[in-house]
Amino acid sequence: MTLRLFCFAKQFLTVFFFVLSTSLVGQTEAKVNLATLPFLIPNFGLEVPLGKKQSFQLDVLGSFWDEQPHLDDTPFHVNQVFLEYRLYQQSDTQKWFIGPHTGFGMFTLQKPDFAIIYDYWEEKSGAEKRLDVPDDEYQSGRTAFYGFTVGYKKRLKKGFGLEFFIGAGLTQSWYKGYKGLRRVDLDHPDETVYRPFNGSGEVAAYRGGLMLTYKIPTFAHKTNPNE
Questions:
Q1: What is the dihedral sign for C-alpha 32, 144, 146, 23?
Q2: What's the domain count of the chain?
């Protein structure tokens, strides 16, 4: 867990200092998700203004639990990276906003059925939804996200602010199912030869929370050494 957390922090800091080193319009905002912090799941973001009502955001989330202390005994490993373009209600990039986004993630967890809005894969194949999934079964794989975020941002004092947001859309996943170390998502062991991964696609809610935001100060460069 310590090594995964270190790699996650290293990747975020690399992106963070890259953004700070570039000459970008306006002030970059750094963010942390207050809703995930109590569960020790870090979720950080950087938002860069592109115009009066537009911005670009990068945010990353990581969970490194070998067991879910608040849910069950299965692993809860999640890494997500999102790129998002935002359109705001006001010219100072606050109040209501909507943002199309794309993302990529890696996971080892038990699928959270409560977050699924529509499972078109099951509708297409005619498969019946399992209602009695054992607590020790989980999935491990990769997923891509294509959707929208809606939210509301309110400026506070001294560069701080609060932002509520929720995001949903289409997910496409490639995974393997396990019970302990034994694979359980195939009807027959020989299927691993021609189908090493299972696939699934759902419309789901997969991100959200309450961000504490902070405008990173910008420093003007003096052109006259005598000033």
A1: positive
A2: 1
Closest listed residue to residue 113, CA positions, set 126, 132, 100, 127: 132
Structural domain contains residue 94: yes
pTM of the model: 0.77
pLDDT tens-place string over residues 78-133: 999 999 999 999 888 889 999 999 999 999 988 888 888 888 666 555 555 555 56
Structural domain harbouring 135: 2-215
Residue 222 domain-assigned (yes or no): no
